UniProtKB/TrEMBL annotation:
This is biotin--[biotin carboxyl-carrier protein] ligase. Its EC number is 6.3.4.15. PANTHER family: BIOTIN PROTEIN LIGASE, BIOTIN--PROTEIN LIGASE. It comes from the Bacteria. It catalyses: biotin + L-lysyl-[protein] + ATP = N(6)-biotinyl-L-lysyl-[protein] + AMP + diphosphate + H(+). InterPro entries: aa-tRNA-synth_II/BPL/LPL, Biotin_CoA_COase_ligase, BPL_C, BPL_LPL_catalytic, Transcriptional_repressor_C. Keywords: ATP-binding, Biotin, Ligase, Nucleotide-binding. Residues 2-187 form the BPL/LPL catalytic domain. One of its GO terms (cellular component) is cytoplasm.
Length: 253
């Protein structure tokens, strides 16, 4: 961690770096101190005891993986559509891993990153409002090392990137630079400019899937996403349904 500390701080364009050997949750740390930590700050921990994923699930985070969170805020009066940001963050994870030589990457809507058909990274964006700003904490977990003793806690097929010689420092530096630039540009660019490239990595594009909501399951053919980052599902009667990010689960049939 000391090498990361020295290398990373020198190249951070803004914000501070908070490093922990062990913490309950890097997201929770930045949410707790959102009004005092500088814009663009990053929190990284070797291990997390209470890491969380989407829909309240536990994120298993053994030592050797990347447990990373970044904080940003926008004035509430800008009235930005923020939900698509989580899709862009998934893209930035892919681009950062590609620069480390990782191939065969894809995205499962909205932001799970897959390698050769198995999940290797996840994104959780959490919001907190405190006038005059809305604070975003973006948590990213990447399976860089093999998971040996916690497989029984994971409810889906997962993999890791241990076959690649990934430079931990350079991965963190690259990812942070990309996120800073995206977040600076987002009020002007929005999500529309990312739609095509996101669809290029779409794991389930034109495949038969099930979309599971709190009340119903819909089956059809995935049509990708729209300019708001909503999932498009074509039903057997050719009707197109749109699903926003939230309590929705997507599975291939």
């Amino acid at each position: 961690m000391s090498e990361l500390n020295n290398t990373f701080i020198q190249q951070m364009s803004q914000g501070q770096l908070y490093l922990f050997d062990c913490i309950d949750s890097t997201n929770e740390y930045l949410l707790t101190y959102c009004k005092t930590v500088p814009q663009g700050s990053v929190c990284i921990a070797k291990t997390q005891t209470a890491g969380r994923g989407r829909r309240g699930r536990q994120w298993v985070a053994p030592q050797g993986n990347l447990n990373y969170s970044l904080i940003w805020y926008y004035p509430i009066q800008q009235n930005l559509l923020l939900s698509p940001l989580s899709l862009i963050i998934g893209l930035m994870v892919i681009e950062s891993l590609q620069q480390q030589g990782v191939k065969d990457l894809s995205i499962k809507w909205p932001n799970d990153v897959y390698h050769k058909g198995q999940k290797v990274a996840g994104v959780l964006v959490e919001l907190q409002t405190s006038l005059p700003n809305i604070y975003l904490v973006m948590g990213i977990g990447i399976n860089l090392a093999k998971i040996m003793d916690k497989q029984d806690k994971i409810n889906q097929p997962v993999s890791n990137l241990s076959e690649y010689a990934i430079d931990y420092n350079q991965l963190v530096i690259c990812l942070t630079k990309k996120l800073h630039q995206v977040l600076i540009d987002y009020p002007q660019t929005g999500f529309k400019s990312y739609t095509q490239i996101w669809q290029h990595y779409d794991l389930f594009f034109q495949k038969e899937v099930s979309v599971i909501t709190e009340t119903q399951t819909y089956c059809g053919i995935s049509q990708g996403i729209n300019h708001k980052g909503e999932l498009l599902l074509k039903l057997p009667n050719n009707e197109i349904l749109m699903f926003s990010i939230g309590d929705v689960s997507l599975r291939q049939k």
